[in-house]
Amino acid sequence: MLKRLRNLISPPAVPARGTSRGSPSPRNAPPAVEQRAALLAGKNIPFTLKRSNRRRSIGLRIDDRGLTVSVPLRASEKWLHSVLQDKARWVVEKLDGWRARKPLETRWSDGETVYYLGESLTLSVKQSLFATHPSLRNGELFVFVADDGDAKKVECSVKLWYQQEALQLFGQRVAHYAPLLDVAPRAVKLSTAKTQWGCCTARGSVRLNIQLIKLPLRLIDYVVVHELAHLREMNHSEKFWEVVGSVCPDYIKLRRELKTVAL
Fold first, then answer.
1. Mean pLDDT score of the chain
2. Are 72 and 56 spatial neighbours (Cβ–Cβ below 8 Å)?
3. CATH number of 162-259
């Protein structure tokens, strides 16, 4: 489940080998990675340009790092400019949509809001000589640290709490759905991937993103079912979706909802 947006454009015809004049020698080859900017649909858009001798087309990808443009090693500036201008509106719309969904950075201080199982919690930071496990009561997450102004300590305490809660809950959801799908994962692990909510390896290990613990249980269950279904169908074929739908009949709606959440 990659959160990637790709657009491949076939390259124009190129001269046959040996007919091109003035091609740059290897020592004059352009850099493999560059930071650039272009005026697209009236906006100055920074982007990362990546060149590769394996590519035969220009690809556009938008993720949490912004716009990445992958091009063949010898792609001309004219071709690059043409593709960017042709897709300018698409790029700006996708970037705006991504930024609108991106959550605000947490400040890890008293009164700040954090999320758990789809609900917003208020951080209540308490000074204590004896650091104890965070406690959830009536919509407040109480965090106990020696210095209540130490944001790093608060962050570490909350993230450890997230990890422990995720391990317990994800294990319970996998134990619930695995028999229904007639599968037996070899291991259930936490993931900190930047672009995937979950994955399943060929060896039968299921990895679930720790950030799922912030989402409603219905979305957690959808991801759990999705990854467990890969133990029967290691693809996204029609048969795979039949497996998912056998225990999660509203998976299309849930899948659509999950796509609106920035990882």
1. 86
2. yes
3. 3.30.2010.10
